[in-house]
Amino acid sequence: MSRLLGVYALAAYAFLHLPLVVLGVFSFNRSRFTQWEGWSLKWYQAMGADSALLEAAANSVLIALCATLIATVAGTLCAYGLWKRRVPWLSGSLYLSLVSPEIVTGVALLAFYQWVFRFLDVQLGMHTVVLAHVSFSLAYVVVVVLSRLRTLDPVLEEAAMDLGASPWWAFYRVTLPQLVPGIAAAALLVFTLSFDDYVITSLVAGVDSETLPMLIYSTARRGASPVLNAISTVLVVGLGGLILLAERLREA
Amino acid sequence: MSGGILAMRSRSKPDPPAAAFLAPSVLLQALLFLCPLAIIAGYSLLSRGAYGGVELAVSFENYQRLFDPLYGAILLRSVWLASISTLLCLVLGFPLALFIARSGRRKGLYLQLVILPFWTSFLIRTYAWIFLLRDTGLVNTVLTAAGLITQPLPLLYNDAAVVLGLVYGYLPFMVLPLYATIERLDKSLLEAAADLGATPWKTLWTVVLPLCRPGIVAGVVLVFIPCLGAYLTPDLMGGGKTIMIGNLVQNQFSTARDWPFGAALSLALMALVMALLMAMSRRRGGQQAEDLL
Amino acid sequence: METVLELRGVSKDFGGDPAVDAVSLSIERGELHSLCGPSGCGKTTLLRLVAGFEAPSAGEIFLNSRLINHEPPYRRNVTTVFQNYALFPHMTVQANIEFGLKQKGVRDLAEPVRRALDLVQLTGLEHRRPDQLSGGQRQRVAIARSLALAPEVLLLDEPLSALDPNLRKQVRQELKALQRRVGITFLMVTHDQEEALSLSDRITVLDRGRLQQTGAPQQIYLRPANRFVADFLGTVNWIDGIGVRPEATRISLERPSNGARVRAGRISASTFLGDCIQLDTLLDSGERLTAQVSRMNGAFQSGDHVHVWWHPGDEITL
Predict the structure, then answer these.
(1) From the CA of C115, how many Å to the nearest CA of chain B?
(2) What is the ipTM of this complex?
(3) Nearest chain B Cα to A214, which residue?
(4) Chain B partners of A73 at a C-beta cutoff of 8 Å?
């Protein structure tokens, strides 16, 4: 039975990984079509020369950085607060935001923004995208940081206070340093989630805020393109590296 | 030796109430999650305006329309596609989870290999299948070159492609809870079964599978929920007819510009998701699924 | 003697039965005082009330005659050695000891850290991290960290329970010697009556949140206030309301003639305990009685007819 299981597992891993590997290989194909004509870097050069693409990528990085900063700070503080005191409605709300279908989160935010815009003179743009990303990634930060906190001994803070540290100082000097790997992992996770998001972004983005996933989507909609193969490969390798780093940190 | 220390400068500031730590996220969560939900809840009770806006006329008409045969069919179709995908994930995921749980020191690596693609851009993973399956994609090209077919096979833009995309996307959600339960199984139970003369297959069927029920329940719910609310997969891999609830919602907010109905659909979808989660948390698998999230 | 810590009618309930129930207690300056009792008797809660991690539901706590009920732990000049030591895992030994001193605004840290390490004989380990220390070393760092602040009272929560049994007896004596050397008041929680008896100047026995008795070890062992205290501190044979401890119970074939209290009976079991022999007897009157005798005069066998006797002065009368 175990040999059969091994063969099956090999097939399953091939199913999970081969599509991306094949895509990666064909991003180096000289031909524009799906026939192999030899190695070439020309699609990567084309990618580097595409100004619309670079602008979208810059937008994505900027949005992801802002969302990561806000969500990580707020989420870490929140996890610490929830570790100290149970707040059922907040935990419930975070849990709900974690499981709501993306499309629902997206249209709800869109409806909310449109309603707010009746009273404020603002429009959809980068800022609305950033806030939307904070909205869906906050819960991820709380979950990751809280799981790290649960491995800590609450007595350590008591010991700090017993030695004269105020609660703020105990948090800053004793708890926070031990949370750093968890916080870093959460930040990397939020960055990739934000950088990758299409469904919610497409609903709340303005005219000036086209992101890389939106560009990828519109290309994929029309079929395939060798430049898109190259972009995909760069993203899979780059973001995959970040995720591996995050996993390493979570275990640290 | 005493006294003096009390008189020394203390760095103490006022106590931080947990509320101070919670304030930013309470604000964000209320403003960016609960308020939007409340707004669409409100919209779902209004009527569609003449020019795509909303009219302040309270009615339950939008909810009645959910049972309109046209939309009812889409709801049923979504449930059907999500069910098929979930079942396939279970059938494909169980042996994989079993394999990982039994692979000794390499467990961590094998588990990583399941998790990693899950974190890679969903959009790009969907695109990879488009690249493989479209008429001029790799599979059709290879088959044509090999002389096996003359016309490209219609591999993309149909229900089967959607199911494939969903299974590919959410298989890790099934494998993780299954692995966790198999891993936690008391090894002596398996040894006892073998000792009593059961073959490995018999043990699997009569001991392992029944004991894995909590993991199976957790995995099924974890896969079914995102499949039911899927938008991107049916949009990119489905044919013109393969429309699921997610696409219907998106349609109401874009082309159809019927926000009240789209809002009602969204709430119905949320209600379905919550009902499933509650049903699961009553069962034993519930806590485990929440842990994983 | 001068009172350093005083509890007046202190109670604490977490909903349900009170964990600490109207306890009044005075701790004298410079003594090593043990709080002792079975698990759930409220001894740890009492310690946490003094440290400031819990607020009393009723009653007052005074430190140097000053009411400290509402002072947070970081303003109370008492420090705690936690059961698992609670050393900060991300800091070196030195940083752990400096931690409290920095809170107090001490400028020159080197000297007090050196002195604290010297006290517990750990000089040279300043730069180790807690996970690079043995259990005994960790305990001593925890003590040094707390002592460095020169507290009015040092609270110790089961300080020896995390050590392995062989080490425990040795550390017990070191702890007592250390307390004598620094002269600081120690208030120690323990569930181990032998530990309490051998270490303490005075012992307080608690049961179900209530104070049962306070006194010197000999006093509470030989003159327990009630049956609970008597039984908690060691086995007692109870006959007609009179108690006698197994080690005070003698066994002989001949009837003793020296004014002792004597009962006749038979040996029902003989158990070798290493340093002594335990003899279980069944008296002719039907009661069962246990004696611990030295190996030299324990050559009895089951069924032997014997006389069981003790001196009236060894009796425990309530």
Answers:
(1) 14
(2) 0.87
(3) B123
(4) 24
